[in-house]
Amino acid sequence: MGTLKQETLIELTMNNFRQRLEGLMGKMVIAIIVMTCINFVLVGIRYQQSRTKLDKAVASFEQSGLLPEVALASLDGKDSKQPEVVRPYAELLNQLEAKCIEPRTELMGISRALTKHERKQQQEVTYLEGLQELMSDVESGFEKFPATCMEAYSYHVQASQQ
Question: Transmembrane segments in this chain: where (predicted)?
């Protein structure tokens, strides 16, 4: 009889433990869902902020009348009057334009933003290298094209901050 009471006590203890564990697991699932939603909202806010800054930069650039590849070569301190100097910038912009939905001027703005971000991370990066990095992010991050290069930029920035 003593063993019957012990077995019953063990069963009651196990059932009590299972109930508590199930309750705890339910709360953990809810917490994970809430954290995922908060992260999603924060990513959306960061994307919108980046988008607003980019729109302003593109608008001011379009008023200057320079071709994006010429502007980027000039920013890198290169002689932008030489076609062979500008060609690598133009080729990368052409490739990005084929894979992304943004126009050429926005792609220039995104690559400038990416380059500036890399420089804040204490890396010496040229604007040509910024274009190459953006191209790498686009090619590795998306299965279908056209995609948004702005998303690739946002993911790049977010990944570097983690």
Answer: 24-45
